Hints:
It is a single chain. This protein has 135 residues and is α/β, with parallel strands linked by helices. The protein is built from 4 helices and 8 strands, in the order αββαββββαββα. It has helices at 2-17, 37-47, 96-102, 120-127, and strands at residues 26-27, 30-32, 51-56, 59-65, 79-80, 86-88, 105-110, 113-119.
Amino acid sequence: MKQLKSRAQDLRILFERNITVADIAEKLKYCNGADDALVIRQHMKDLDFDVFGIEEKGIICGYLEQASLESGPCIQYQHEFHASDLIAESTPLIDLLPILRDGSQVFVLDRNRVSGIVTRGDYKKHQSECCFLAW
């Protein structure tokens, strides 16, 4: 039994230190602020995405929620990123659990720029691939 406990502890350490948000994050799809919101909403529906990034001057500076898009340019529907919306790609995956309990997604920082997203769906997809999350 001691060997089993040791392996379980080793496995937990592996997940706490070596598997990070970057391992499950998806590249954030985005559009330009001048794009037509209705066209982007349809594109998001086609992709089955609830959230899209919004890019201005080469930087993803905010996000759009499909449900709120109506006519006009996307920029008028932009939500700004807040500190609670962001997580470093190097964050251990185990630290992501409490964050996704409170929200449906978190945006991933690569250095100082938003480049990815992790949603509850991404997490659940990887949860089925990894048994450690049943702890």
